[in-house]
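no rush on this but wanted to send it before i forget. what follows is a protein written twice so to speak, once as letters and once as structure tokens for the fold. mainly i need to know what kind of three dimensional shape the backbone takes. thanks a lot i owe you, the record is right below.
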Amino acid sequence: MHAKVNRLPETGSRAAAVATGDGRAVARQATRPIRALSRGLEVLAELNRQHRAPIHTLSSTVRLPRTTTFRILETLRLAGFVERDPQDDCYRPTARVRALAEGFGDEALAAEIAGTHLAALSAEILWPIEIAIPAGAAMTVRETSHSALALEPRGAGDTLSMLTSAAGRAVLTFAGPSQREALLELCAASSLPEDRLARDRTEIDRMIQETQAQGFGLSQRTRRVSDETTLAIPICVGDRVLATLAVRFAATAVPLRSATEQFLPKMRDVAGKVEREFYRARNAAALRPARA
């Protein structure tokens, strides 16, 4: 659930009178609201809801001038609550927002940690790499390497099918029973054509068994220039899949066997690092003393 920050009323505060315990009336000036803080929280709450957005989108959504929105975002960035992607100038919340909002959960933290390894991994694997997280009955892309080799553009915020994408299949296959059943129930209740498969448990079981035997999620799509193959592996904490790491490539350029031999060891190494760093980050947060 994402917090909603209500705009403060335009009228200023008025003087108020209160009575003390001994009956003496004491006049005081009510605290005047800090409008800049209200606006800053509104922008942060909206960015947390969207996960990632450019200035013009946030400015339009919160109905503030772009210059004001930019100043707020840069203030939040300098304070460590948001970061800006130099590739497209989009802003996104950082792990510090976990202290402020429930909307930044374990999945987003895992994706953020994975994002710190994206540049190094993309230097080794030149094809587009994506980090996605479960979001309801679908997968949401959180990070992408913006590779020039991409057969089609895809960016943060794009939605992938839980049942037909490599990322979604990796989640359903390697998740524990409770997470898997919850996701399948969401898909079964969906009215989208691509989610109808969730009502066919025989086919779902076959897909899961096939993915387990492979050791990775796999999807193949027909493109105009070449078919596109995607391989995805899970990032797990216990029996929960928090995120996935995937690579997309042209089937005519990289045979599947070559891709599994060249790409998967590097991806699994990164996934292991993310899982270890996630545990350290969560343990550090749990051990941090609460402020009085």
